[in-house]
Every structure is written in C-alpha cells, then in structure tokens.
Specification:
- The complex is a heterodimer of chains A (163) and B (135).
- Chain A is mainly alpha-helical and 163 residues long.
- Chain A has helices at residues 2-5, 9-23, 28-45, 59-85, 105-117, 143-162; strands at 94-99, 121-126, 132-137.
- In chain A, 60% of the residues lie in helices and 11% in strands.
- Chain A has a three-stranded antiparallel β-sheet with strand order 1-3-2.
- In chain A, a hairpin with a 5-residue loop joins strand 2 and strand 3.
- The longest helix of chain A has 27 residues, at 59-85.
- Chain B has 135 residues and is mostly helical.
- Chain B has one domain.
- Chain B has helices at 7-33, 37-40, 42-67, 73-99, 121-131.
- Classes of the chains: A mainly alpha (163), B mainly alpha (135).
- At the A-B interface, helix 2, helix 4, strand 1, helix 5 and strand 2 of A face helix 1, helix 3 and helix 4 of B.
Amino acid sequence: MIARIFPHPLLTLTLVIVWQMLVNYVSLGTLVFGLILGIVIPLLTAPYWPDRPRLKSPMMIVEFILIVLWDIVVANIVVAKTILFTRNASMHPTWITIPLDLRTPEAITVLAGTITMTPGTVSSDVAADGRSLLVHCLNAPDPDAVVADIKQRYERRLKEIFE
Amino acid sequence: MGLDMALWQEITVSVFLVVAGIFGLVGSFGLLKLPDPMTRLHAPTKATTLGVGGVLIASMLYFIFAKGQISFHELMITLFLFLTAPITAHFLAKANLHTNVNRADVPPPVGDRPWAGYESDDARRIAEGESTPGA
C-alpha cells in the first residue's frame, strides 16, 4: 500500500526539497504543495520507471560530487588551453569505447552525464546491449589513458554507490 | 552593484563574473575555431559548466553579501543544467553520428551488438527476442 503511493520515496523527497528551493522560502503552503507534487509526479511516471534504483552507500555520493566538481574546474582550464593555444592540425580528436562494468541503467546514465559534463569528453552513444559507451574526446593523444581514468575515477565510485 | 557591500566583497563577486565571462568567451571562440561538428560540441559543454557556474556563484555571493539572504535558485539552475546539458549534447552527437560520421571511423563496442543508434529495429527485435524468449 505504502509502496503504491510512494513508488520512489527518494524521488518524492527530492521533489519536495526542489519545490522549496524553487519558491525560495518554506511555509506550510509551499510544503503541502511540494508534497502534492512529490506524490503525483512519481505516480504518473511510475510506468516508465518500474524498478526502484538502490543506493548502496549514499555517503559516497558526496565524495563523487566533490570529485566531479573539481574535475570540471581542472578540465575547463585544460580545454580552454587546448582551444586557445593548440592549432587544429596538431589536435588529436578521437572516438573511444569504454567497456562498462556497470549494469543498472541509472548508474550508466549518471556515468554518461558525468563524462559529458567534464569538458573534453562527450558521451555519444551506448551499445545496444548496454555493455559499452561511445565517447568522443576533443584532444586525446593517449586514448587508453582516458578510458582508464574514467573507469578508475567515476565508474568505480558509481559501482560502489549503485551496485 | 549594491552600495552596502564592502570593497573586498565587490571584488570577490567581480572576480567570479570576470572568470565566468572569460570561459564563456573561450567557449564561443571554440565554436568558431574548432574544425568539425563533433569537436565543436565540446565548446557548449564547457560554457555551461565554468561559464555559467561562475555567474551563479557570483549571484549567490551577491545575495549573501548585499541582501544577507541565501538564494537557492542558483543551486536549482545548476541542477537543471546538469540534467539537461548532457541530454542535449547526447542528442546532437547521435544526430551527427547518423548524418556526418562515417561508420567505419567509429570504434566497435565490446559486445556482439552494435551501438544503439546504428542498430536497425529488426536487428533489435531479433536480438532481444533471443535474449528474452517469449517476450
């Protein structure tokens, strides 16, 4: 019964908090309306999202977010340098295939999003069987190092969080 | 800028604005300079991270310094950007894979099945019919 009203309890909680932040203050009225949204939206979207993703170690999320934010800052500077100081002829844009150890769709989605948001790499496609990601690198003289880096920094932590 | 801010506060906010502006400019310059659609796709993913991020941090600091209140809207903008920017980039990349990229240039995936964008509907039905009998 409770599982039917709250198919995704974490999504409900997230929606309530997001609504409070959108209205930028907390009152009984905003709390009630946030709760209504938090109940109705998961119910409406439940058919598209039948399985509940499991979070094994939520504390790892904080570490993961901090690492990604740091990497975004560093990679921004690297890519800015590439754009400004590397001639197009001497760049090494390349496609790489990342073999995936992750199996849950949510974890693969987060990994693909992370790869895109860290500048210099854009995740472009996923294999039909969900076992590899196609990633485009702006400047990768050593493609194997990029694959190893992504697997070591992001995928290993996502595996701990989701699986 | 608010008149009720100390000089160091104004400088801090300004530094974030200027840094954000520089990264936004470099991102736009990248759109002009880079040679093909796939490399050009890297430029907007940068403008939305440090470029927009810097403006949002400056905005949060301004509201804390000048108005003495914490604003959550910047965090929301960050959240929505991080949700939408990868999806847009993904769609653009997939469209480009279909129209401009020679399939022979794209490395194969690890398993037996091709990239999702290159698999025909018939091939998908056969592959998934075999893996889940009766479906």
